[in-house]
């Protein structure tokens, strides 16, 4: 499967004149990309040879990126409506494109009504939906207090999240979920979650984010490592020795073992340094017999165009290397060499906005489309 990743707020507004003004801009706030813009570009995406699109979170959220959920049952008003999504799915399916949504089961926004109730009232029915400590402190995604962590040991939380996930499959016909921060929720939760989705659609696709970079300080605060069952750790011996590992100290085999244990495949992991180096040098060969997805970059990483200093030949070789895998993901704009203006190292925070620049549609020319098709469809 060849997947085109779309950062919804940075792709298209549906208005060519507005898109032109936004080209290459970035911000830590919303720029205006939406579902209508994606609908208008479905034929373009299909023409590039893709089988599916993955949309960054589209549910109602506090932030432009969508990873701060406010309502699991509503499309964010900035992106459109539930009906707009239904139209998108129907039109995508009509031309042979699957639709994969980003599902965030690990945390919600601190403005979510359930969390506000839990924080302000210790007797709230939602108090145990989160993990509170002394002085009303609470667990969150890494150290981001704006993203309180859901307690996926709580039966009500499990039921709520699974019901929400099934809603979009049953009523909208989506084809898959990219599972954000998959090492956060419990393994038992994911087993039940994936089984429920597959019961509705036996071919449902899962793209779990197995990403350990930057998580070192949070290991002791992660529910995944608080499980009572020793089976969680026995498959990964290195974790027994040191739960405070930083990502550059973990052999790639252990990262792969963690991903295989949880999801029988790898999606978002920078742990396999040999593969990463091979991709960027254009010499990657797919030798894993699972459903793992290969990619050169995404919305959390510096763009491949930036890493390779805009060398079009090197970029083409890297992406062609990715395309050879059974399952590949290409970040929006890579086909036109979309890059960034600054290195992540320049920023103390919000550095990722650099790799989330608005699509430059003036570069999406027939010449570039033909180049991309010739380069990759003949692999």
In short:
The protein contains 14 helices and eleven strands. It is α/β, with parallel strands linked by helices.
List the helices and strands and how they pair.
Layout (H helix, E strand, L loop, with lengths): L1 E5 L9 H7 L12 H6 L1 H6 L4 E4 L3 E3 L7 E7 L6 H13 L3 E6 L9 H8 L19 E2 L2 E5 L6 H18 L3 E4 L7 H14 L4 E4 L22 H4 L2 H5 L10 H12 L9 H9 L12 E2 L8 H4 L4 H12 L4 E4 L34 H11 L3
Parallel strand pairs: 1-2, 1-11, 2-5, 5-8, 8-9, 10-11
Antiparallel strand pairs: 3-4, 6-7
What would you say this structure looks like, in words?
With 379 residues, the chain is an alpha/beta fold. It folds into 2 domains: 2-106 and 155-376, TIM Barrel, CATH 3.20.20; 107-151, Oligo-1,6-glucosidase, Domain 2 (Oligo-1,6-glucosidase, domain 2). 34% of the residues lie in helices and 12% in strands. The protein is built from 14 helices and 11 strands. It has helices at 16-22, 35-40, 42-47, 82-94, 113-120, 155-172, 187-200, 231-234, 237-241, 252-263, 273-281, 304-307, 312-323, 366-376; strands spanning 2-6, 52-55, 59-61, 69-75, 98-103, 140-141, 144-148, 176-179, 205-208, 294-295, 328-331. The strands form 3 sheets. A 7-stranded parallel sheet has the order 9-8-5-2-1-11-10, with helices on one face. α6 (155-172) runs parallel beside α7 (187-200) and α11 (273-281) crosses α13. The longest helix is centred in the middle third of the chain and has 18 residues, at 155-172. The chain is globular and about 60 Å long. The chain starts with a strand and ends with a helix. Residues 213-256 and 264-273 have low confidence and may be disordered.
